[in-house]
Amino acid sequence: MTLSTEQRRFYDENGYLVIEKLIDAATLTRLRDVIAEFKERSKQIAASDEIYDLGPDHSASTPKLRRLKDPVRRHDAFDALMRSETILDVVAPLLGGSVRFDHSKLNFKPAGGSAKIEWHQDWAFYPHTNDDLLAVGVMVEDCTPENGPLMVIPGSHKGTLYDHHLNGVFAGGIRPGALGSELDRAVALTAPAGSISIHHVRTLHASSDNRSERERPLLLYSYAAVDAFPVFERYDLAEYDSRIVRGSPTLSPRVEPVPMRLPEPRPQAADSIFDNQAALLAS
Question: What is the pLDDT of residue 58?
């Protein structure tokens, strides 16, 4: 698929885009089968680990899986879709032509669960030398108003970079009330299974609880332009360049005058956005 001029203009102005039914039925079936396998394995896990982020009420009889960490590293079905022309042909024009895969996650919304995500900007988690970064959300199942779809605030990628700290420690979210009337402009990204959403790294976004009786998994791929380099982070250059999925390596970062706050210091214990953000609600 080739993005139209209107789609590119909409993304530039609003900081997000939805493309319906981009992923074919066979790929969706494969993803669902693999996800079911991981869910079954999670029943044997008692606490969150390097693969699973589990809800506090998780059990073998009623699994409450909040996130599968780094799915691209866990199964080739996730890796194949991340590298597919289907995704890259849409992403590349929005990043200036070159694409480096950054990271992935699979967020679950258990039926009747509490796996909401508070308002935040991805940019707060991983600032780079420029902000040509975005996230693609693959809707494995229908995203409806009832099952906690991704919500965005149009145009917020051009506005304020909000504080995501609490008492001097990075909390991964914005304090309740800080956004004020901005929330009145929030848009829920609803679409049928097989659709994708795209949001800019500085776009304000969140998701609410799943009030439906069906689980709502969202597979997320984050991509960056090849000349966007992480700030305040050590990495192995060979491994970093191995993630380039379109374009050539460079040793010349493109540095743009973008607002930035470092996501430091990190919490000492919690390694979960759900647990980190809980402190915001208690403040």
Answer: 84
What's the whole-model pTM score?
A: 0.93
Is residue 261 within 8 A of residue 155, CB to CB? The reply is no
Domains located in the chain, CATH noted: 5-282 (2.60.120.620)
Give me 191's structure tokens: 């679409």
**Tens-place pLDDT, residues 63-117:** 888 899 999 999 999 999 999 999 999 999 999 999 999 999 999 988 876 678 9
Q: Which of 58, 27, 33, 23 is nearest to 44 (CA)?
A: 58
Residues paired with residue 39 on neighbouring β-strands, in sequence order: none
Please answer whether residues 65 and 42 qualify as being in contact, where contact means their C-beta atoms are separated by less than 8 angstroms. Answer: yes
CB of 83 closer than 8 Å to CB of 99: no
Nearest alpha-carbon partner for 108 in 12, 19, 31, 9: 31
Nearest to 125 by CA among 107, 108, 109, 103: 103
CB-based contacts of 27, cutoff 8 Å, min separation 6: 81
Distance CA 75, CA 80 (A): 9
Quote the CA–CA distance of 98 and 248 in Å, as a whole number.
Answer: 8
* 191 DSSP assignment: B
Kindly provide the residue ranges of all beta strands, DSSP E only, lying in 80-132, ordered along the sequence.
Answer: 99-107, 117-120
